[in-house]
Fold these 2 entries.
Entry 1:
Amino acid sequence: TPLTHDSAIIIVGGAGTIGSSTALHLCRRGYKNITLLDVYGFPSDYAMHGSSQSAGASDINKIVGSSNSGTRGEITEMTMDMWRNDPVFKDYYHEVGELSAAADSEHIADLRRSYEAKLSHPVKSKEIKWLSNREEIITHCPHLASGLIDGWQGIWNERAGWGAANDAVDSVGRELRRFGVKMVFGQGGTFDRPLLDDDTTRCIGVITKDGAKHYADRVVMATGAWSPSLIDLEGQCVSKCWIVAHLELSEEEAVRYKSIPVVYNEEVGFCFEPRFIPHHQPGKDRWIIKLCDEFPGYTRFMETQPFGAGQPIKVSVPRSHSAHPTDTVPEEGQHRLRRVVEVMLPEFKDREFVKSYMCWCTDTADAEWLFCQHPGHPGLYLATGDSGHSFVTLPSAGSQVVDLLEGKASAERMRKWAWRPGRGDPEHTGRGGEPPKDLGDLKGWAHGDDE
Ligand code: FSA
């Protein structure tokens, strides 16, 4: 069936980053029959923004504008233009600047190479600057004057900053409602398996957990870190979690740290300016700094049988914070998070975190997206493989998925996004360094029912 503006299109994971973006671009290109299915509504708890309804504004900021490779890098201009100017996004982007630094000589050399590569670009070259010592760093990031930044060098990008993750996705949700997109959330929106045509094995819809059949001409699986546990991806994606902590500041402290740039150091981690989190009860508003450590991520391997697997197989399966709101992070991770505070925010080195949690994404071996038609089931599309760096593309990722659906994606991009089992190992490669540890071997993170 050729794709027309009246084709029925289902997006599974439609309240997540890539799913909602896909729906937005479909609407803007005139498609009129779109249905989103998702476990949670907006803001969703899906991997790339790690937020959760039950936890309120849990994912309050994500980096926007840092350097990115592959397709994500190629669409940077569209991405940043939309963050700055598109009415759906512009109120949720905070251009406070970003320092991307390192102390280790090899890491500095990598940063220097990526800096030099941008110098030939007419626009990017004007936005970045190389900072080669403490003084230069402090000029742009005065709050690091007391930080442990000896030996740091790196790239200052003044046209970058952070996005208010939950609010931005919510804004997309409002726009989709305005366009009349249908949405089913909860049990009735939870994917069980694709609905197949008996004769052709073509995908003709989705069966949800409540047993309902949803028919469609195209089904897009934008299911983030859940993808490999829902559809057998033959090892192309390995889902991992990273960890996050929140520090609470008084208003006086927050005022002093307001508008600090995003500071990222791949040997340590990263943090954001304090964000005001309003509360409906007076006196309960809060100022929160979100911070993360940098490490190879954690897997959670278990036996499960995704659609398409003839028998149970080992897959790293996320455990969502929404379903397990009391989960925290492994003990060893707490130590790394404390280190981020010591290095970047020493004033608060003795302050306890008000919250720590895990945020899931799914890696491909080459960190490029998996945007393709399923080889065995025409009509079924994968829009996953975020590889940890896709939230920044919330405004633009969907344009790429829609290009794929419309057959407009370039041969080069189709090749990059292709179904590609065996081309590298997403568990061990793509990030260098140590392979990820498994949550099953770590203590201190699971709380509540099934500790
Ligand atoms: O600039 C960005 O794309 C932010 S990546 C944030 C991060 O926590 C990674 O640092 C981590 O390694 C993982 O990919 C999850 O996302």
Entry 2:
Amino acid sequence: MSEIHKDLNKHPCFNPAMKGQAGRVHLPVAPNCNIKCNYCDRKYDCVNESRPGVTSTILTPEQALVYMGKVLEKEPRITVAGIAGPGDPFANAEATMETMRLINKNYPQMILCLASNGLAIGPYIPELAELNVSHVTVTINAVDPEVGAKIYGWVRDGKVAYQGRQAAELLLSRQLEAVKSLKAHGITVKINSILIPGINDRHILKVAETMRELGADLFNCMAMFPNVGTPFGTIREPSKEEVGAMRTEAEKFLPQMRHCTRCRADAVGLLDQDRTEEMRGCLSACAQ
Ligand code: SF4
Ligand code: SF4
């Protein structure tokens, strides 16, 4: 990684001590996705990093740069610029990479962060490291293709779409390579795992163990939100107690994130002082 112009400890998601002092802005430049999670409702934001809500405004990279400036005028405590959908950053790789280039050049003090399903990030990892992208989250819900085949409706690689076990195998192999490569490039890696009762609840610990072996830094077990009309719409949402118990078990393998607020793809502000609603006008104005 080239010269660091920033304090990497000031990421409120990776460092809970910062959550009342430092904030994040998600730049919604990535509308498309290259996989279909059976809990996802694409009318809403990516549940990789969000809770259901109204669809985000989509910005171009240039608009995201203007928006970044406006957000910092209103909320100078923002230390992190991230891309968390509403689809996958690398199903929109051109927009994602250009946004990272623009923010790195114009706001070198910003910590750069991305959240991805890991399918298509691989070829971009060397440039991400050069651009000082320091924090990446990969959502990995299964490390066994039998389990993965129940979670993913399809996986699209270029022009070819896969289903069933083949889809799950492809996604898993890319995810494992991505985590290894991110670590080899000195990037801090968080794993998000969506807890889906009856599907992967007995498997999450295996995910955590495998991720420890690959050198991941942090594990974030999140409750699935049952979106009505999706294949998993009738599965119940796991309780706080179930998620808490899973985190306690998974802590044997990796440090746990316990303060995730399941932010939207256009979230802005401190984690415990969200200003997304307030900034909505500014976001829409930048999209014009
Ligand atoms: Fe939806 Fe995110 Fe899964 Fe894509 S990766 S299908 S946007 S939850
Ligand atoms: Fe941080 Fe969780 Fe919000 Fe992502 S969804 S920005 S990890 S608090």
